[in-house]
Amino acid sequence: MPTWKPPRPAVPGARVGRVEGATTRVEGHGANVRSESVLGFRLVDPQSGVPTEVELRGTSIAGTVRDGDWVEVAGEPGRSGRLEPSRVHNLTTRADVVVAGSDRSPMARMVALLIIVVFVIVAAVIIVGVVQVFGEPGF
Length: 139
Known about the structure:
By secondary structure, this protein is an alpha+beta fold. It has one helix spanning 106-134, and strands at 14-29, 34-44, 51-58, 60-62, 70-74, 87-90, 95-100.
Protein backbone atom coordinates (compact mmCIF):
# COMPACT_ATOMS: atom_id res chain seq x y z
CA MET A 1 0.00 0.00 0.00
CA PRO A 2 1.30 3.50 -0.84
CA THR A 3 2.60 5.63 2.00
CA TRP A 4 2.45 8.95 0.14
CA LYS A 5 -0.19 11.59 0.69
CA PRO A 6 -1.80 13.90 -1.91
CA PRO A 7 -1.24 17.67 -1.64
CA ARG A 8 -4.97 18.15 -1.04
CA PRO A 9 -8.19 16.14 -1.14
CA ALA A 10 -10.17 15.89 -4.38
CA VAL A 11 -13.05 18.26 -5.02
CA PRO A 12 -16.50 16.58 -5.13
CA GLY A 13 -16.93 14.50 -8.30
CA ALA A 14 -13.19 14.18 -8.90
CA ARG A 15 -10.34 11.96 -7.83
CA VAL A 16 -6.76 12.77 -6.93
CA GLY A 17 -3.87 10.42 -7.56
CA ARG A 18 -0.34 10.02 -8.76
CA VAL A 19 0.61 9.64 -12.43
CA GLU A 20 2.36 6.47 -13.59
CA GLY A 21 3.23 5.39 -17.13
CA ALA A 22 2.54 8.74 -18.81
CA THR A 23 2.75 8.49 -22.62
CA THR A 24 1.92 10.77 -25.52
CA ARG A 25 1.31 9.76 -29.12
CA VAL A 26 -0.34 10.92 -32.31
CA GLU A 27 -2.85 8.69 -34.12
CA GLY A 28 -4.05 9.11 -37.71
CA HIS A 29 -7.61 8.29 -38.76
CA GLY A 30 -8.97 7.27 -42.16
CA ALA A 31 -8.24 8.46 -45.66
CA ASN A 32 -8.43 12.12 -44.67
CA VAL A 33 -5.33 11.55 -42.49
CA ARG A 34 -6.71 13.60 -39.63
CA SER A 35 -4.50 13.11 -36.62
CA GLU A 36 -5.40 13.08 -32.96
CA SER A 37 -3.09 13.71 -30.00
CA VAL A 38 -3.39 11.22 -27.14
CA LEU A 39 -2.10 11.55 -23.58
CA GLY A 40 -2.47 8.39 -21.52
CA PHE A 41 -1.47 7.47 -17.97
CA ARG A 42 -2.50 5.48 -14.91
CA LEU A 43 -3.95 7.46 -12.00
CA VAL A 44 -2.91 5.63 -8.83
CA ASP A 45 -5.21 6.04 -5.83
CA PRO A 46 -3.16 7.13 -2.77
CA GLN A 47 -5.18 5.04 -0.30
CA SER A 48 -5.65 1.76 -2.15
CA GLY A 49 -2.85 1.88 -4.70
CA VAL A 50 -5.36 0.82 -7.37
CA PRO A 51 -4.64 2.38 -10.77
CA THR A 52 -7.29 3.77 -13.14
CA GLU A 53 -6.49 4.28 -16.83
CA VAL A 54 -6.85 7.90 -18.02
CA GLU A 55 -6.82 9.01 -21.66
CA LEU A 56 -7.14 12.51 -23.10
CA ARG A 57 -7.76 12.75 -26.88
CA GLY A 58 -8.15 15.69 -29.21
CA THR A 59 -6.73 17.71 -32.07
CA SER A 60 -4.14 19.02 -29.61
CA ILE A 61 -3.35 18.81 -25.91
CA ALA A 62 -2.03 21.84 -24.00
CA GLY A 63 -0.04 21.03 -20.88
CA THR A 64 1.81 18.00 -19.58
CA VAL A 65 1.89 15.43 -16.84
CA ARG A 66 4.91 13.36 -15.88
CA ASP A 67 5.35 10.22 -13.85
CA GLY A 68 5.07 11.06 -10.15
CA ASP A 69 2.95 14.19 -10.65
CA TRP A 70 -0.16 14.58 -8.51
CA VAL A 71 -3.25 15.23 -10.63
CA GLU A 72 -6.97 15.73 -10.16
CA VAL A 73 -9.36 14.19 -12.67
CA ALA A 74 -13.13 14.76 -12.69
CA GLY A 75 -15.70 12.24 -13.82
CA GLU A 76 -16.33 8.53 -13.66
CA PRO A 77 -14.79 5.78 -15.78
CA GLY A 78 -16.76 4.69 -18.85
CA ARG A 79 -17.74 1.12 -19.71
CA SER A 80 -14.13 0.39 -20.61
CA GLY A 81 -13.08 1.31 -17.06
CA ARG A 82 -11.05 4.23 -18.42
CA LEU A 83 -11.48 7.90 -17.52
CA GLU A 84 -11.69 10.09 -20.65
CA PRO A 85 -11.69 13.70 -19.40
CA SER A 86 -11.21 16.83 -21.47
CA ARG A 87 -9.25 18.50 -18.65
CA VAL A 88 -6.86 17.36 -15.91
CA HIS A 89 -5.50 19.61 -13.17
CA ASN A 90 -1.82 18.97 -12.41
CA LEU A 91 -1.49 19.64 -8.68
CA THR A 92 2.30 19.36 -8.85
CA THR A 93 2.74 22.16 -11.40
CA ARG A 94 -0.56 23.92 -10.58
CA ALA A 95 -1.42 23.94 -14.29
CA ASP A 96 -4.30 22.52 -16.30
CA VAL A 97 -3.85 20.00 -19.08
CA VAL A 98 -6.56 20.76 -21.65
CA VAL A 99 -7.80 18.94 -24.75
CA ALA A 100 -8.60 21.04 -27.83
CA GLY A 101 -10.80 19.83 -30.66
CA SER A 102 -12.14 16.72 -28.98
CA ASP A 103 -14.66 14.76 -31.05
CA ARG A 104 -16.10 13.43 -27.82
CA SER A 105 -17.45 16.76 -26.67
CA PRO A 106 -21.24 16.60 -26.30
CA MET A 107 -21.44 20.34 -26.97
CA ALA A 108 -19.56 19.94 -30.27
CA ARG A 109 -22.01 17.22 -31.32
CA MET A 110 -24.98 19.43 -30.47
CA VAL A 111 -23.56 22.38 -32.42
CA ALA A 112 -22.85 20.16 -35.45
CA LEU A 113 -26.38 18.73 -35.31
CA LEU A 114 -27.88 22.22 -35.02
CA ILE A 115 -25.90 23.41 -38.06
CA ILE A 116 -27.12 20.44 -40.11
CA VAL A 117 -30.75 21.02 -39.08
CA VAL A 118 -30.54 24.73 -39.93
CA PHE A 119 -28.95 23.90 -43.31
CA VAL A 120 -31.76 21.43 -44.15
CA ILE A 121 -34.46 23.94 -43.14
CA VAL A 122 -32.87 26.74 -45.20
CA ALA A 123 -32.53 24.43 -48.22
CA ALA A 124 -36.19 23.37 -47.91
CA VAL A 125 -37.37 27.00 -47.67
CA ILE A 126 -35.34 27.93 -50.77
CA ILE A 127 -36.72 24.98 -52.76
CA VAL A 128 -40.32 25.77 -51.76
CA GLY A 129 -39.79 29.45 -52.64
CA VAL A 130 -38.33 28.63 -56.07
CA VAL A 131 -41.20 26.25 -56.85
CA GLN A 132 -43.79 28.87 -55.82
CA VAL A 133 -42.16 31.64 -57.87
CA PHE A 134 -41.48 29.66 -61.03
CA GLY A 135 -44.22 27.08 -60.76
CA GLU A 136 -43.95 23.34 -61.09
CA PRO A 137 -41.44 22.33 -63.77
CA GLY A 138 -43.09 20.90 -66.87
CA PHE A 139 -41.89 17.89 -68.76
